[in-house]
Design a protein that fits this description.
The structure holds two protein chains of two kinds.
Chain A (H helix, E strand, L loop, with lengths): L1 E11 L2 E7 L4 E5 L6 H12 L13 H8 L22 E9 L7 E9 L6 E7 L8 H13 L1 E3 L8 H12 L2 H13 L5 E5 L3 E5 L4 E3 L5 H15 L4 E5 L7 H17 L3 E5 L3 H13 L4 E9 L2 E7 L1 H10 L11
Parallel strand pairs in A: 2-14, 3-12, 3-13, 7-11, 11-12
Antiparallel strand pairs in A: 1-2, 1-4, 4-5, 5-6, 8-9, 9-10, 13-14
Chain B lengths: L6 E4 L3 H12 L7 E3 L9 H13 L8 E7 L5 H18 L7 E8 L2 E8 L2 E10 L5 H7 L7 H8 L2 H6 L8 H17 L7 H11 L6 H24 L1 H15 L1
Helix pairs in contact in B: 1-9, 2-3, 5-8, 5-9, 7-8
The chains are: A alpha/beta, B alpha/beta.
């Protein structure tokens, strides 16, 4: 399985300098507001731009996606806001390392470098593969390209994005992945839906034995879960990054939802990065990863004067700390 | 200015917890101390304590935090107990590949308390070990034959104080002088029958039995400390337990450095 293993960031958004090592199958990012969780997610997508990622699964160009996601913060024309403290005199430098444990475990670097012209006339982005890995085999390059091209970010607002089914449904039907979605949704929410059907004008209907209802008439938790699962079911051998998947979910559903996501991610060889403020979410994903025989880790992020620090904890350490009474979301109180 | 970072305090048993909780309630513990929830099923005994400690203080696969560990002396000297602790941490670090590269070094000692640093790169976790027990209490040693030391040495010391004793409602059914007499008689009877009476905890249990106290020993420990504070006042109480409280203050300084 191909995975991103580490990420280093320089002069990007709120991060002057930061490095995260040890990404594994299921990764949970925690940390206070403004600790750079979303910056990490954005940096990974930018690092992947040099190796195949242009538009996301739903056809949104990466640049445009982040402009929309940061709407109200980054006006489209204020490119300097991409730089740490808008200091464009230093290059933005993002390096992700991916490896594939199916083969010779050769690591490859994904590099995104960005500089502003001296006259301030505009920004030049240089997403590219590091020179040192240009010699990779065709198979390795293809796998890396597949991995990068598929990288997808699912934000809480996507729970209400009917464009997801518009883009995905035909493909999901092609090998009846819709059946898996029906089973999973029933399991997570205790429904007895028989199937789904996409009607013209992109109304995804949930069909029960005696009646059918548009997905958007279901509760927010169901809509969020269905669209997340639809997204994941579209992916193969890549990375899905979920921001606050606990949104709209009751803790009981969240546990089953996390379980379904981890199982499906394992089956589709998809690496997961989850950012959250919820202790229940941390617990649910660690438990779900263990049940799916996937490795997992929690990364606690802090940001101090632009220096991002990441503490990596394996599930055993998280359990021991939790048992001790240390909440892994508040590690900055201790260290 | 006090160190703003929290320190996690580990201990062995429920009696220690009850004692520390009562001290914390009376604001006699250093600021920022958080008593650990000990998971004794998952991490039993002294070795389990070390395993539960490592995620708090390890700079790798841990949070390079600060911790204070209270370990009963039992029949060891303070030096031997500190050496045991060091070797237990060393062994746990060596045996777990996930802690590879973590270096353990001393960060200084004062009296019986020893500080350690766990280092990896620019990350440093701090821990201080406090050997618990009162081997210097000649009265407990000679009159009661105690030679295995633990937190209960301080509990018994409180229970042997008449004003404290008389301030604990659970003990009102028995006179202080009778209780003291019974400690000795029952202790002697145990010994005559080949039963070991080497720990102050045994006397606390004898006290529970002769006063027909229902609640657990830990509950009685907590009450003795609270009622002791009430009866003696903070000044006299801290004077009585000074060696222990001093050790805690030293531990706080060592992990704050």
């Amino acid at each position: 399985m191909i995975r991103i293993r580490s990420l280093s960031i320089k002069n990007f958004r709120g991060v002057r300098e930061g490095r995260i090592d040890g990404f594994t199958d299921v990764n949970v990012l925690v940390g206070r507001n403004n600790s750079g969780k979303t910056t990490v997610v954005e940096a990974i997508t930018r690092a992947a731009m040099g190796s195949g990622l242009q538009n996301d699964l739903f056809g949104r160009p990466v640049e445009q996606f982040w402009q929309q996601a940061r709407a109200g913060v980054t006006p489209g024309d204020a490119q300097s806001l991409l730089w740490y403290r808008q200091d464009t005199s230093n290059d933005v430098d993002i390096v992700g390392v991916v490896d594939d444990d199916d083969g010779a475990r050769k690591s490859e670097e994904l590099v995104y470098r960005m500089n502003m012209s001296p006259q301030g006339a505009g920004m030049t982005a240089h997403p590219r593969l590091n020179q040192s890995v240009q010699g990779s085999t065709a198979l390795e390059a293809a796998k890396r390209q597949l991995f990068c091209a598929g990288i997808t970010v699912f934000r809480p607002a996507d729970a209400f994005n009917s464009g997801i089914e518009e883009n995905c449904w035909r493909q999901l039907l092609s090998d009846r992945r819709d059946r898996l979605l029906t089973e999973t949704l029933n399991e997570v929410f205790g429904l007895d839906a028989e199937s789904f059907q996409l009607l013209p004008a992109n109304h995804l209907m949930v069909l029960f034995q005696r009646y059918g209802l548009p997905l958007d008439l279901q509760g927010d938790g169901t809509r969020a879960a269905m669209r997340t699962l639809m997204t994941l079911a579209m992916l193969k051998s890549t990375l899905l990054m979920l921001e606050e998947p606990e949104c709209h979910q009751h803790p009981g559903s969240l546990e089953r939802f996390a379980s379904a996501l981890c199982r499906l991610a394992k089956a589709r060889a998809v690496q997961l990065i989850v950012s959250t403020h919820s202790a229940e979410c941390v617990r649910s994903f660690l438990k779900a990863a263990s049940a799916a025989h996937s490795d997992a880790a929690v990364f606690h992020l802090t940001l101090d004067d632009g220096k991002q620090d990441a503490r990596r904890l394996d599930p055993e350490a998280v359990e021991a700390l939790t048992d001790t009474g240390v909440d892994v979301r508040f590690l900055d109180l201790y260290a | 200015m006090p160190d703003p970072k929290k320190k996690v305090v580990f201990f062995e048993g429920d009696d220690d917890k009850a004692f520390l909780e009562a001290l914390q309630e009376a604001k006699l513990l250093p600021e920022g101390w958080q008593l650990a929830n000990r998971n004794k099923q998952q991490h039993p005994g002294k070795d389990g304590l070390v395993r539960q400690l490592l995620p708090v203080v390890s700079p790798v696969n841990g949070i390079d935090g600060r911790a204070v560990v209270l370990v009963d002396l039992d029949d060891l000297s303070p030096t031997e107990r500190v050496a045991w602790f060091r070797s237990a941490i060393d062994e746990a670090l060596r045996n777990e590949p996930k802690y590879a590269g973590v270096v353990l070094e001393s960060s200084g000692a004062r009296g019986r308390v020893q500080g350690f640093r766990l280092i990896s790169g620019d990350r440093v976790g701090h821990v201080a070990v406090v050997p618990v027990g009162h081997p210097d209490d000649a009265d407990l040693n000679e009159q009661y034959g105690i030679d295995r030391f633990a937190i209960d040495d301080w509990v018994l010391r409180l229970a042997l104080n008449q004003r404290v004793f008389q301030n604990v409602g659970d003990l009102s059914c028995i006179r202080f002088d009778v209780a003291v007499k019974k400690y000795r008689e029952v202790g002697a009877l145990f010994r005559e029958n080949g039963l070991e009476v080497r720990k102050a905890k045994t006397y606390v249990q004898i006290l529970r039995a002769i006063a027909a106290i229902g609640p657990s020993t830990a509950t009685i420990v907590g009450r003795l400390v609270k009622k002791g504070l009430e009866a003696l006042g903070t000044q006299e109480f801290t004077a009585l337990t000074k060696p222990f409280l001093d050790d805690l203050a030293v531990a706080d300084e060592l992990v704050s450095a």
